[in-house]
Amino acid sequence: MSYAENALPEFDNEMASTRKVLERIPDDKLEWQAHPKSHTIGWNANHLADLPGWAISIFTQPEFDFMPTNGPRYQTPSLKTTKEIVALFDKNVAAARKALAEVKDSSMGDQWTLRGGDRVIFTMPRAAVARSFLMNHIIHHRAILCVYLRLNDIPVPGMYGPSGDE
């Protein structure tokens, strides 16, 4: 079984669960934040909608530089409605799924680097980056949003079975 054949079922399941969480966010809660040191619901939702798009770089490029010295710095999107956020998520999931489906097994051991200009944040095999920096990172921000939903008395959707609200 290829890497893609092995990873796609989990990817599809996690993206479907993530979409359910994003869909639950009311527009009037996007500016809510749990603590002054915490990001808002809207920031987390925008970041979560953007993260699947990073798969294109992970699966097709040797590195990603979020602060290139000769170009613009990466910016998290700042969409203002849940509808826009879900649309970005759907677009990025489709592109990520395509990149994952087309990735060659022989490239999954290649080193991939995240950098901020001249500073290397990490270098790991592409397969490890797909697991930790892509999938675990998405699940991490989805969990933050689930806590934020709960703190705002918004029903949390089930993901690995029913939630306490179902």
The number of E-state strands comes to 3
| Count, helices | 5
Order of H and E elements: HHHEHEEH
The CATH superfamily is known as: dinb family like domain
Approximate strand percentage: 5-15%
Strand order of the largest sheet: 1-2-3
What does the average pLDDT come to? 96
Question: What gyration radius follows from the Cα positions, in whole Å?
Answer: 16 Å
Taking the alpha carbons of the first and last residues, their distance comes to 36 Å
Low-confidence stretches: none
How many structural domains can be distinguished in the coordinates?
1
- Quick one: CATH class? Mainly Alpha
| Percentage of residues in helical conformation | 40-55%
**3D shape:** globular
Which secondary-structure class do the elements indicate? mainly alpha
**Named CATH architecture:** Up-down Bundle
Major beta sheet, specifics? 3 strands, mixed
Under CATH, the topology is which?
Four Helix Bundle (Hemerythrin (Met), subunit A)
Quick summary:
The protein is mainly alpha-helical and 166 residues long. The chain contains five helices and three strands, in the order αααβαββα.
Question: What features would you describe in this structure?
Answer:
By secondary structure, this protein is mainly alpha-helical. The chain has a single domain (17-151), classed as dinb family like domain (Four Helix Bundle (Hemerythrin (Met), subunit A), Up-down Bundle). Helices cover 51% and strands 10% of the residues. Helix 3 packs antiparallel against helix 5 (126-151). It is globular.
